[in-house]
Design a protein that fits this description.
It contains 9 helices and 7 strands. By secondary structure, the chain is an alpha/beta fold. The protein has a single domain, classed as 3-Layer(aba) Sandwich (Rossmann fold), CATH 3.40.50.720. Helix 2 packs parallel to helix 3, helix 2 packs across helix 9 and helix 5 runs parallel beside helix 6. The longest helix is centred in the middle third of the chain and has 29 residues. It is globular, with a radius of gyration of 18 Å. The chain starts with 7 loop residues before the first helix and ends in a 7-residue tail after the last strand.
C-alpha cells in the first residue's frame, strides 16, 4: 500500500483549526472557557454551552477576542432533548460540528459513609450521563460526516483514590475514562477520535475553598510532583492537540495533565 509522505507545509498546519466548528459544554467554567479560547485562537468557530446565560455571554465576549465566531447556547448537558437542540442549532448556524469538548459537571464531596445518595446521584448524572448525552448527540453528526474529534474531561481522581471525599466524583470520572475508550473503539471506523484530558486539581471557583485551606493544600501538593495545582491555561495545549490533525492517529487515550500525579 502506498503511504502518504507529508510535506513541510502540511506538518506546519497540523494544529490549524481554521474552518472547524467546536462545541464546548461547561463553556463558561474555568476548564471550558480556557479550552474554548484555545480552540478559537487556532481558528475554530466555537459554541459554548452551559446552564447560565449570563455567564455564557461574558465568556463568549472574552473568547470572541480571537476573531472567530462564538455562539453561547444555554443548555443542560444532562437533558437529551436540550442537547440535541443545541447540536442541531450548531449545525444549522455553522454548518457542521467537528470537535466536542465535554467540560460540564459538578464535584460534590462528602465522606463516603455520609454521602447523601441524592447528592451522589447528582454527581453521577452530571458527569457520566451528561458526558454520554453530549457525545451521543454530537457523535451522530460526526458519523454522518465521516470524521470528528471528541474530548471528554476526566480526572486524576478517575485513576487514583483520595481521602478527600471523592466517592462520587472519582467513580464518575473513572466511568468517563472507560466511556472514552468504549466510544473510541466503536467509532474508530467512522474516523472519530475520542480521547480524554485528565487533570489534577486546578484553580477554579469550585476548588478555591480547598486550595485556600493550608492543610488541604498540603495534602494535594504532596501528590503532585510538579509542586503546584494546575491552572486552566495548562489544558489549552492538550485541547488543541486532541482537536487537531496532529492527533489523527490517537484515540482512546487518557491524557494526564497532572503535574506528574499519576507517575509519582
Amino acid at each position: 500500500m502506498d503511504r502518504e509522505v507529508w510535506s513541510l507545509d502540511k506538518i506546519r498546519d497540523l494544529f490549524d483549526l481554521t474552518g472547524k466548528v467546536a462545541i464546548v459544554t461547561g463553556g463558561s467554567g474555568a476548564f471550558g472557557q480556557a479550552a474554548a479560547k484555545g480552540l478559537a485562537a487556532f481558528g475554530a468557530d466555537v459554541v459554548i454551552a452551559g446552564r447560565h446565560a449570563d455567564t455564557l455571554d461574558t465568556a463568549a465576549a472574552d473568547i470572541a477576542q480571537a476573531g472567530t465566531k462564538v455562539i453561547p447556547i444555554p443548555c443542560d448537558a444532562t437533558d437529551a432533548d436540550a442537547v440535541e437542540a443545541m447540536v442541531a442549532r450548531t449545525v444549522d448556524e455553522l454548518g457542521h460540528v467537528d470537535v466536542l469538548v465535554t467540560a460540564s459537571g459538578v464535584a460534590n464531596r462528602f465522606a463516603a459513609e455520609e454521602f447523601p445518595i441524592d447528592e451522589w446521584q447528582k454527581v453521577m448524572d452530571s458527569l457520566v450521563k451528561g458526558t454520554y448525552v453530549c457525545c451521543q448527540a454530537a457523535g451522530k453528526r460526526m458519523i454522518a460526516q465521516g470524521n470528528g474529534k471528541i474530548i471528554t474531561v476526566g480526572s486524576i481522581r478517575g485513576e487514583l483514590g483520595h481521602p478527600g471525599g471523592y466517592s462520587a466524583y472519582g467513580t464518575a470520572k473513572g466511568a468517563v475514562h472507560l466511556l472514552t475508550k468504549q466510544l473510541a473503539t466503536e467509532w474508530a471506523k467512522h474516523h472519530i477520535n475520542v480521547n480524554s484530558i485528565a487533570p489534577c486539581i486546578f484553580w477554579t471557583p469550585l476548588t478555591q475553598q480547598v486550595l485556600d485551606d493550608p492543610k488541604l493544600y498540603q495534602i494535594f501538593m504532596q501528590r503532585i510532583p510538579w509542586g503546584r495545582a494546575a491552572d486552566p491555561q495548562d489544558f489549552i495545549g492538550a485541547t488543541v492537540y486532541l482537536a487537531s490533525a496532529a492527533s489523527d492517529f490517537v484515540t482512546g487515550d487518557i491524557l494526564m495533565v497532572d503535574g506528574g500525579s499519576k507517575a509519582g
